[in-house]
Every structure is written in structure tokens, then in C-alpha cells.
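Data card: per-record layout.
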Amino acid sequence: MSQFTRPTFDVDDSVPEHQPSAQTYRQKPPSFGSRSSNKSGPSRSKKQSVFAQRRFDVDDEDLERLQEEFFANRQEPSARVVRKEAGSSTEKTGKKPSLFAQRKMASKAEAVNMPALEDPNMPTLEDPSMPALEGMPALESSSRPVVVKDENGDEYEPVMDPNPEPHVPVTKKMLDLTSMLGQVLGEITEHKVDKVTAPTLPSFPTGKPGREERAGFPQPVHRSEFKRRLEAKKKQTKTRLETPPAVLDENEQRINEMSQEELDAAREEIMNTLSPESIALLMGGLKKKKKEDGTLEKPVKQEEEKKTVVKRDNGEEEDLVEMKKTYFEDVPLEADKLAWLDERFDTSSKEKDEKVTDDSVPTEEERIYRTLRFDLHGEFIDGTADIPRHKGLHHHGDEPDKAGYTLSELFYLSRSQVPSQRALVWTTLARIIEHAKERKEKACWPSILQVFLGKEHQAAIYIRSALDDRHLNVLSSAIQALSLLLLDSNDSWDEEIKEIRHFNQFLGHVVHPTLPQGVESLPRKGLNEKLTEMVDRVRQSSGLSTTNQEEQGDAALAERDLVRGLIKMGILPRLRYLLHLKSSELMQDRISVERLVRILVRMASAGADVSEAIMQEEDLLESILQWGLVDTEWPMMEAQDEQMAYPSLAAVRLLTVLAQAKRINAEMMVEKATVTLRFLVVSPECHTSLKERAYALQLETLRLVCVLSCYGLIVPTLEDLREAMLTWLRAAIQDPTDTCIALRAATALRLLQSLLDAAADPHKTTPPHAIDWHQPTAYLPAVTAIVRSVSPQNSDLYNTALGYLATWAKYIDLFPPESDAVNEVWKAVTVSAKQPPSYTTQSILCYIQFIDAYASIRQPSYVGLVQEAKKRLACVNDTMMQDCYNKDVMGRYAFWLWLQHHDNTGDKEKKAMLECGVEASKNRGETWLAQQFLQCSLRNVTHLGLFYFEHSEQDEKLSKALFEHDGRHVDSFMLTGTTHSSSSSSNSSSSSTTFDIGAFIMSPIDAVYHLDKSTVAQQCSTDAATIVRETLELSQIFDTDLDIATVTLMKVFLIGDREGRNADVEGEREVFWEVSMESLLDRICSTRTTLHRLEDAWRRSSEYIRQAQVPFYQFYQAFVAHYASVSLGHHGFARLLVYLVTQIDTVDYRHLLFSDYRDAIRSIRLGKDEVPMSSSDVELFSKAGIQWGAVKPTK
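The structure for this 1195-residue chain is written out next.
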């Protein structure tokens, strides 16, 4: 029996007359000892009876809307509730009252005698208008109180329920609970049970194995959860609840008996009652059922758009689309849910059609990215082959039945949450990159490599993100993939030999990295840039990802320039963090750290801006030096082991590249270079198993010291290496065939040559007088012995020795040596080679430099040697010099030195000088030499000097300092240039140099044609006619290419009327009336050309055209239109037009003249022999109205 009373509830029955009743319950605090609080009605009302009517799942807004429509339309209710006093059941039936009725009458009588505990104004639960709830009998009296003892033994009298409920059987109580609905459902009649059957277990058929057994044994358990789900999904069949047949028959019978009006009324009632979601659900099930039964008919497409209407109560019809716009304009349209009501809502087919039409044909890279499969070794694999699953090539991808991984799946798995899986994926990707670089000429490997380098799949972003991984295995695999993608080849002895040989050449310490088109140099970091970078790091550390637009920009930059793209993605701070932690696990992995250092070397070689960005990362270089040079074992006595702490060749090379990039970096390297001098003291011969590695360290150290000396920065302990360098030279004399010994001696001679230039002027060095003249000249006898003993066929060692002697001879007047030494050196060189030892530009330059140095001696005692030297220069073969100057800077400089002693300079030499000047002007390091050639070849030019001699004074000063070996005026030995478009033509008989010469000669006319873009033309005060006249005369002298001349003449006729020009810049008037072009036209019309050659000449003729990418046909359209408008039958204009039409055998070009501008042909008057044309062309022009006959040219 409960010790507490139950809470009471007040029922608010004050509702409008026609409004659906809604009871509002207000709960009161429980009261102890109150009789009215013990009634069980409210507590039972919370639990809805199973016989109660179910409510539709509608919200308050729908109820309010239905109520407003009900009152507005004044509709008659389908049923009314009339409240009346419930009569006694005994009066109607005459039966004995039930137990429920007796309890109700007893509770009424007891409630009359009890005092009111509640507010009389509040409605009571026992409303006489409502059916009375079940009452409780009165509490039976007891003659003595009940005493109970607690756990401690204390006696107390418990609080008793004043209205105890008598014991009633459970089944009877359950039946009585439903008697409150007596007036609704009627009386409940109990069935009599004559025989009770005991429950039994279900029986199974005998002789049939169990569900989990087969032939008496349990089935094997498959532990693959994915396979179990896949098989269950295939066997799964959708089951639905079937309606009993009796109910279906009854429903169909009732529907068949209904009239059309009743059917319409029922349909309208359903539409008004149910929500749109319920209607859609029912209709969707109906359609599916009809489709399964095969009774769904195909809808017939009407010519007019079908409209779904809703019939209202007042008979009006409204369109669903209009209803949506009128009543639910702000509600988002869910077209897929309304498609069953109206076809106009069905947008899936439209989107599908648009997707099919918009998607372009996939590229070769996209096909490879999605379909080509690889194994874990990075090799091709046939996805359709029957490969056993135990090999681990099947996975849970989009196509689990196919073995292998596509690049798309590998990049997706690279973001797996399992570290071992990420490491395996990046190892596989690294092997794919390695195979793609090794097999560039085979199959589709170039397209595979393009997938990693392109922006479409953002491979660079994936690799950069993998470097942020915290697991060592993943990080090592990602570093391997990046090194294979970024580095051209692995470090090998052959690559080291190739680089050393290039470095030992003239100006070999100057490098020329290229900047791809569309890529700008990295900006110098100021305070604002550093603050912005710090904010970006905070955003990344806090988990804020970058936007999609930023990722696309990084991927596009990485496609054009991978190095600068990685820097933009913040790889340098990450590398600084990885290499700064001495106790990190990565620092113990020397292979991965070596790869990171090599990556930094490759990045630093991309330009001075990248090297500056590396130097701005604090402690990055210090960590590398500490790891790769200081904390290492030297000499290397044990066998080669990658994990041994041996000196890092990449660390020394990084110092060299950073020193080449900036002078300020080189000043910091002077002190750091002292750490590497120990590699020069110990002989590599003591490293038996690591001999090549020891030689490579020595050669790289000599390169670093040589770069510093070219700046004038002298390493303090260089004097201590005198004995070691003499030993190297003696070893080269004894065994000049040994490649390692010969290269070491040649590099040492290259260093001594730069020290001679530094010692010639004490103020060139930092600090001043850091080296004396006698220090580098102390090796003169040894070098002379090398020239005598070494064959000229050993070009590396012989050329560097000859270069050292040429540099020494250059300063004979400044530092006069003994005459015997001068004569001995001359005899050693002239006896060994009467002519240059070979036709390589390096050997020719060293020989010309030596002979020129002796021919320039001013001391009277050496007159005989001077005369002999001049004779030798005159005997140099002209053909050899012509082959020399077309190759590289060494050939051009040798040609320039040879011209200084050549008195007769004819047209042939002028043209050669012009070609050298044009070619040299493309490189910043040759600006001074280019101006020397141009000034000599174009000295008679009066009005065109502003066009031909335009250059940067700063570049000329830098170039002159390089040729004079004066490091004081050199800020960087890394001269970054831009890539140029290809200028070769397969169908042209002329070389690419000839094309460049023609474009250079005609450049003043192009500048006037592009007046709004050329600042030089805007600054020039000479009139356009004079510029055109002198340019055409100069083209006759240098025999300009005729295709370039043809395009240039077209520009002459269009000067002042160029299509697309800036209207704000005042253009020149027509100049073709004032310039005679007949001689050039005679040359042009004497030969034939093709459209391909003209298009090629159009692109080569101007840098502005290459930037704007203007097609030649557009230029030709403007030319024809200009003739029709302003030519007035100009003879030269007409002759050039007819020449173009007859040479271009393309329909569009001819149709433009003979159809669109046919009337202009009648103004053309030419002789048949003035333009090369066939008989069919003559007939075609004759029909168009051309006037044939000899015509006096227009002046």
C-alpha cells in the first residue's frame, strides 16, 4: 500500500462551441491525507487506452489552418456531440448493477459528505456531463491500530490508505478498465472457455538439418565482416506487410458499390485531411505496386505541358505551381518530393541531360587517374586478371572485384586514419613516380607523371599535407615521394663529374635558372609579410583549413613551378621544424634527412628569391650544418652505410648554391666554410670503400671556396692548403688519366685562376689585401709542367691550366715577372698546340685568351713575342670562329677577342657581330658583350639607336664585372631569366638565329605598330615615316628573312589603324604613301611562301604578339579591310595583297577577298609578272574584275 497520495489535475472545459475540445491539465502539488487526491482517474488518463481512436500526426499550424477554413466556409460538421445525463443502466436493462457502477455510486455519496478542499470556482474532475470514472470503496474500520517495527527496533504506526482497494483478479481488473467506454463501444461480453489447452513448444520437421548445420556438422564461420554484409545484401529481399484477403475483398466491394459522386467526395475528403507527405507516400506505394504487378501504363507525352489541378470545395480549380507561388513563396521547393504530382517538378532528367552535355571528354591524364591500376611495387596491373586475393591487391574500393589500386584510390587512401596504411600508400606512390621518370619514353608513363605535376588532381597538395604527419613511417615515405618528384636524378658520381666539368669552364660559377611564364619571383618578406605568415601558421595549428580557392591557386602555381608552389604552401617552416629537433626520431633516419637536404638544394637552385626565403628561416641552415658536417665522422674508415654519421655531400652543396644566390649569403658562408676544409687535408685514397664519396666531398669543397673567391671573399685558412694543392698537381702530372685525380687538379687550377684575379687588385678582396700576388703565382712552375706533360686531348685539365696561364699573362705589365718565365710559358703553350687543341668553345677561348694576353703586352722587351702572338691570331681559321660564336658565351667572347686584332671588318663580319649581339642580349650576364657587338655592327645608324641599343644600365654594369672578374659589383651569381617560346620552324630553310635577326632588325617598325604598348616608340621623337624608311634600308643590308619582311610590310600598311589598340594614345597616320617599298616587294614576290611559314613569322616578329596570342587570320582580316577602306588602289598595297592570296591556299583567306571584299578587287591594277601565280589564279582574279597591265609604282 502506498504511503503517498497521487496528484490531482484540473480540467479546463471552457472551449468555444464549435471548437474541438482540448483539455489543459494543470498539475497541483500532492497533498497528504486528502481523499480526493486518491482518485485514480488522472493517473490513468495519462496512459491512452488501446481502444482509443488514433490521431493523425499533424502540428498546431495545420489544426489552426483547418479550424479557420472550417469557420470561414461555414461547413456543416459530419457529426455532433450532444452531452446528456447518463441514465442508470439498471433502468434500461433491469439487470443488477455491475461492480463498476456500484463503486461509482458509493464514491458519489461519499463525496457529498466530504468538505471541499479546492476552490469552488475551479471545475472539478467529476463533471456531471462527463462519464464518471471508477470509484473506490470506503476504507474498512479496524478495531486496533497496526504497529510496525523498523530496523532499529523502534515501533511506529504507519500512515494507512483511507480508501484501500479490495483484491480483484487481474483479468477482471483489465476488463473493468475498458468499461469507461461503455457508451462508446458498448458492453463487453466474456467468452466462456470450456476446455483449457496447455501451451506447448513448436515442433520442427524431423530429418532436416538445422539452419546452422550441414550434414550434421556446423557451418564454418566466415570472419570477413565485409564479405558477410555483401552476401547478405545480395540475398536480402524486401518484405512488406500483406493485407488480409478478406479485408481486400471487402474494400473492393465497397468501392465498387460507391457512385461517382461518393468517390469524388471521398477523394476530396482524403485530400483535405491528409498531409501532402502522407499523400506522396501513399501514391508512391501505389505506383510501385502497379509497377511490380505490371499494370502501370506508360504516360503519354502531350504536346502541351500537363497541369495538375486541385478541385476546391467551391468548385474552382487551381494549378499546383500557382498555388506554390501564391501561398508558399518563401518555402524551399523540394522538387524531388513533388515530382509525382506534376511533371514540371521533375528536374532529375533535366539535370542529367545538362550533366551529360556539360561534361567534356576525359583527358588522357583523367583516364589514367581513374582507371589504370598498379600493384604495391608501382607496376602496371591488369584489373581484369584473375589474381589471388592473398597477394593483398583486393580492397574495399569502388570495384572490390578488381585487383590493384588506381591513382584516385591511392590518393584517397593517403588520408586514411591508419598510419601503416598511409605509409604503404606513399611508398607505392613513390615507386610509381620513380618508374614514370625512368620510363618517360614508354607507354603512358609521361601522362602518369603529368598527373603528379598537374593541377587537376592536386598531387602537390597531397604530398605537402603528408609532410605534416606525426608518424615516422608515413613521414619517411612522403619525403621519398617528394624527393623523387622534385629531383631530376639521384646523386651519382657521373652527375658529380658533369657538374664539376661545367663549373671549371669560363664563368662556370654563374648559373642561369629560368622562371616559367606566368610565375613571379617570391616577394621579399617585410614585417607585414612575416606577420601574415605567422597568422597563417596560427590558423593552420588551430585547425582552420584553407579555402578551396586557395588550394586551387596553390595547385596551379605548383603546376607551373613546383618549387615556388611548395614554398607558397609553407614547406620551409615545416622543414625547419623537422630538422631543428635534435631528439626527434626523424633525425635518426639519416636517409630521410639526406633527402630533405637534397630537396633544399634543388629548391635553392631555382632562383635567388628562393635562396633568400631559405635563409630567412632561422636556425634551418645551422641545424643542417650541425647534422651533416659538424656531428660527423671523418675520415670515413668503415664500410659504406647510409645510417652512419658520415659527412653529407648535399650539405656542402647547399652552402655552395646559397653562396651563388646572394653575396650577403656568401659573406655568412666564409666562416662556415672553414668546417669543410678538413675534407681537403685528408687524402681520399685512405678511404678504400668510400673513395668516390671522399673525392666528391673534396671537389664540392673546392667549388665552395672558388665561389667565395669570385666575390672577393677569401677563406682565412686557404694558405694552409698550399702543400696539399701542390701534391694534387704533382699527382695529376704523374697520372693524368685518372679521372678523380685530373678533376681535382683541374678544380684546384680553377680556384687558383680566380685567386689571380683577386690578387691583382688588393681592393677587390674582403677584407682588403686578404691575398698577395705571390701566393697564387707560386704554382706557376707546376702549371707549366702540366701544360708540357698533359696531352691537349685531356681537355679538362689542359684547358684549366691554359686558363691559369692566360690569366697570369694578362697581368704581366702590372706585375712584371722574370723574362725567362715569360719565355718558358710561351714556349710551353706554343709547342704543345700551334692551333687551338680542339674545336670546343672552352679550348678555343683559353687559347685565344692566352694569345691575346701576349699580344697586348706593352713592355718593349717583349716586342718579338707580341708580333708572333698577333700573327697567330691572324692565322686563326675564320670558319672555326664562325662555328664558335654561334654556340655559347665562351664562343662569343672568343670571337670578340679575336675581332680586336682583326682590322678588316666587312659585311660578313658585321652580320656575324649582329648575330652575336642579338643572341647575347637574351642573357643578363652578357649585356655588356651584346652592346659591344651591336655598337660595332650598327655604328652608322642615326635615328634607330633608341630601338636597337635599349638595355638596362644595371645589367650592363653587372655583366662587365663578370667578364672582368670583379666581384665587388656583383650581387649574385644566380641570374634568373624567363623561358621563351620555341622559335624553331620545321618547314623553314633558315635557322632560328636568322629569324631572330630579322625580328630584331624589323623591331622599330613593330614598336611603331604597337605604339600604345611600346614605351621606346613613345619616347622617340623621330617621325614614323623616317623610322620605317631607315629600317627597310637596314633590312636590305643584312638580308633579312623574307617571311619576317612580308609580315613587317603588312604592319607598315596598318600603322595607325591596329585593331585593339589603346584609343587614348594618338596613332600615326598612314605612312605607306611616303615610303618606297618596291625593292623589298621585288625580293618578296620573287619567292614563294606558305601559310605555316607566315604564321610562324607573325609569332616571331613581336613579343607583344606572343603575349596577346593574336591569330594571324585576324591580322590578315584587318589588312584586307584596311586596303578596301584607305588604299585607293595603292600599287604596293595591292601587290602585297595579291601575293598573300595567291600564296595562301586556304578557303577562308580567299573567300574573305573574293566574297566579302569583292568590290575592292576592281581597284587592283597589276602586271601578270609582278606576282608569282598560276594560270588558275590569273583566271580567278580576271573573273573578279582585276585590271591587268604594266603600272607605274605609286610614289
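Known properties of this structure: Residues 41 and 133 are 6 Å apart (CA to CA). DSSP finds 57 helices and 15 strands in the chain.

See the next section for split statistics.
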